[in-house]
Design goal:
Layout (H helix, E strand, L loop, with lengths): L5 H6 L5 E4 L3 E4 L2 H18 L3 H17 L2 E4 L2 H8 L8 E5 L4 H15 L5 E5 H6 L4 H14 L4 E11 L2 H6 L1 H18 L3 E5 L11 H22 L7 E5 L10 H19 L7 E4 L22 H15 L4 E3 L11 H5 L4 E4 L1 H8 L6 H14 L10 H8 L8 H5 L3 H21 L6 H7 L11 H13 L1
Parallel strand pairs: 3-6, 4-5, 4-11, 5-6, 6-7, 7-8, 8-9, 9-10, 10-11
Antiparallel strand pairs: 1-2
Helix pairs in contact: 2-3, 2-7, 3-7, 5-7, 5-18, 7-9, 9-10, 10-11
Amino acid sequence: MNVRSSLDLIHRDRGVYELTDQGGIVLKNPQKFISQTLDLLVWNAVLGETEEVRSTARWIIRRAGLELSVVPASIQGLYEARGRKECSGFTVPAFNIRGLSYDVARAVFRAALRLKAGPCIFELSRSESNYTDQKPSEYATVMVAAALREGYEGPVFIQGDHYQANAKKYAKDPEVELQGIRDFCQESIAAGYYNIDIDTSTLVDLSKPGVREQQRANFEASAKLAASVRSMEPTGITISLGGEIGEVGKQNSTVEELTAYMDGFLAAFSKQAGKKKGLSKISVQIGTTHGGVVLPDGSRAQVAIDFETLRALSAYARDHYGLAGVVQHGASTLPSEAFHKFAECEAAEVHLATEFQNLIYENPAFPSDLKEEIYKYLRKAFADEKKAGDTDEQFIYKTRKKAFGPFKRKLWELSAGVRSRIGNDLESKFAFLFERLNVQRRAELVKKTVTPVAVVPPTPPALAEALQKVNATL
């Protein structure tokens, strides 16, 4: 399926699409492009043999997406409406897709189209981007390709999750650590990430006297990063920004902490960014942990979430600061009967990741020999991460997310039948979540509140050069 150069992609399927030397694309047969050409392009966008091929394939997919009304977008308009209390009663799911990304995202779009589901977010954290070997340009392209493949039209919300400061590195050199996050934000925005969650909650210092001082490093660093993101925005786009007051897995958040953070953030942000818009939401901690709590046999312990605190914090964030509400992380492994409570408590957003990973690895169709190869690799490559007292089941459960990068090609090369079975099971899960979070039949709400802005990606230099050579010979 691999091609060798930009020229191959220029000359391939000339009856289906044609690239212009002005940085455009003409879709001569959109149906054939989607049904026959797209899979080849997305394969090369991810696994192409050279950076030239990968960047060209990504550019073609993104340009085709704009032509067919699949547009990376900011959810800001919807969240502002939520903050004004013009809509309510639902929670936006944010899906972290770590592996088999094309098939998983296609399952999301199939479920969304079937249920006329409204907003959902596709996201990846900074650390996930590294260990799954999915740069922002790749991840955003695959999300657009999945939407095209399933016949979706409209905004695609792609989000940088947990763009997080490392407390130890920050203590050593704050500016170097913040600049690393800025650089990754710039890369993400160029790729079409118009939603970014800034997470400097790692800088909260509970040894300080008083809540404001405990949150000071958090809100000051968050304000600096938010101001930087505002300076990077493409024309016409207001990126939806999130902040965070409590590190996931730590103690539960309080109204006092939310107030201290938001008041401090607004004061610091206004000094740097003037009257530009601040945050649209804020992440809190109310009892979950990323990945859940793993028991010795590899099963997950029941987690108690303080939903009343979630309700109170979300209402307070809307009433006092005009935010869409609060965001809950680490919720995907909760029992099924708990998910409807997020919408009832008016949480703005819930982040879900590990359960989709579990559904891939634990699917009956997943090849047992590949699974054993992956687990053998983990036992060797991450032996130093095994804690004293951990069983093998606990160790594997905690580390298998880190196999998605090293085994990316083998996962993409799974047979169509295996991928179809996994995708169908995931589609059922996504449909369940859409219904429980009450976003089904809300597609019209998205159309009403979000106006996508088409940002044309710059033509990759190698492609521009190849197009010039082609035109010179005509």
